Amino acid sequence: MSKYTEEEIVQSVPQKGFFGHPRGLMTLFFTEFWERFSYYGMRAILLYYMYTSVKDGGLGIDNGTAKSVLAIYGSLVYMSGIIGGWLADRILGKQKSIFYGGILIMFGHIVLALPMGATALFVSMALIIIGTGLLKPNASSVVGDMYSPQDMRRDSGFSLFYMGINLGAFISPLIVGALSTSYNYHVGFGTAAVGMFIGLIVYWVTAKKNLALAGLEPQNPLSATEKKAYTKYFTIGAIVLLVLGFISIKFGWLTINSFIMLVSLLGIVIPTIYFIVMYRSPKTDKVEQSRLLAYIPLFITAVVFWAIYEQSSTTLAEYADKRTNLDIFGFTINPAWFQSLPALFVITLAPLFALLWMKLGSRQPSTPKKFAFGLMFAGFSFLIMLVPALTSGPNELVSPIWLTLCFLFAVIGELMLSPVGLSATTKLAPKAFSAQTMSLWFLSNAAAQALNAQIVRFYNPGNEAMYFGILGGIAVLLSLVLLMFSKVVERLMQGVQ
Ligand code: PHE
């Protein structure tokens, strides 16, 4: 176990210095701000880079494949949190993990900044997947480490941190999008690299003093015998993977499509194994088992929610580029700029929701009800797209108001589901697994995008009404089912609010 107690760790962190919060929050706020700046900036132009023809500076990848690859990428970026969490917990400690993660991410963007074609894309993806797995969940988790269990500021600390995420996500598509059209895509990716570089500097200069003992040491370091055993397992695992990879390439099994299929399966299999292991563990008692059962419908709801939400960068990015009238009032909108909208809506609406929950006090909806309403709004965000789909032909351009409304509804849903999601995960996961709850929550998003890799390729402007109608309809129906059973889920939660 860690050398320091929870109390010692909290006391080592300067408890004031950032809007009345521990000074370490400033470090994590800006590190995560710049990390998200780089991620969302890159993501705002990545689909366009992939499907734009080679002669226009893109990679010329077929449209459907490009969307699936992007979804798989998004899935792996959050799935890798399992590895990042494990490395931090057992070997590196969270502070070092965050720093190494940032370095890998920066190199990931640098690789894309160089005009080196599809190979660079895949190398970059690998670096950013591992880097984000090391940085993102550990940064969020150190936020929690800086407050004592009774500290009332914890929730508002997380809200502030969520603002940092969204400020980064808001600004970067504007800048990266503009630079990529004025110059070229590589300049855009280079800007993302510069962003992560600034984040690393902030972290390098301030982490030691501001975070102090929070996340410094691995919480549950490997013992000498475990180290030996794990080295053996990893070596064997790596050899098996290499051999399998080699055989698959040799026999032509490893195609983009089979890889997409493999990750889609992992997206479902990994959370399922997680649940089974937690449920059957001798460390999980009866009450915790009941809470786990309650968590299953919530998790599934979150998966369907994120599946719709995360299409902002695939299906809806294509919609911005191909179906939206970008010339209004003599001004040309950059299609990448739409990617800023969700974050902008989060920043402006989050305070309103905080106020609403405060006003409602004990009369506010229960967690399962909030989840259901969140999903319902995600459904609405797709159903609203039926209006332009049914009133215009596939080759016509529609007003940007439709995408704007779509993102607005999705964010209203996000504000009901996402903030409660993480805290519900923390409260419903068995104590023995509490270190992994951050990864578990990230898995809901990873599973969603793994599912999307199969779904998004079906979208094209010719079948829009069916596409948005079916997916939006499923979401609304599922939300009604959860509403109907919300009392049952509440009971299974055994007192957790
Ligand atoms: N907007 C969120 C973020 O970037 C998306 C997200 C949700 C990511 C849940 C991971 C898990 O942090």
From TrEMBL:
GO (cellular component) term, any one: plasma membrane
Cell membrane is among the record's keywords: yes
PROSITE patterns hit by this protein: MFS (PS50850), PTR2_2 (PS01023)
Occurrences of domain Major facilitator superfamily (MFS) profile (ranges): 24-490
Domain of life: Bacteria
Swiss-Prot/TrEMBL GO biological process terms: tripeptide transmembrane transport
SUPFAM superfamilies: MFS general substrate transporter
Subcellular location: Cell membrane; Membrane
CDD domains, per database record: MFS_DtpA_like
Mode of membrane association: Multi-pass membrane protein
Pfam families linked: PTR2 (PF00854)
GO terms assigned for molecular function: dipeptide transmembrane transporter activity; peptide:proton symporter activity; tripeptide transmembrane transporter activity
NCBIfam families, sorted: yjdL_sub1_fam (TIGR00924)
Protein name: Transporter YclF
Annotated organism of origin: Lysinibacillus alkalisoli
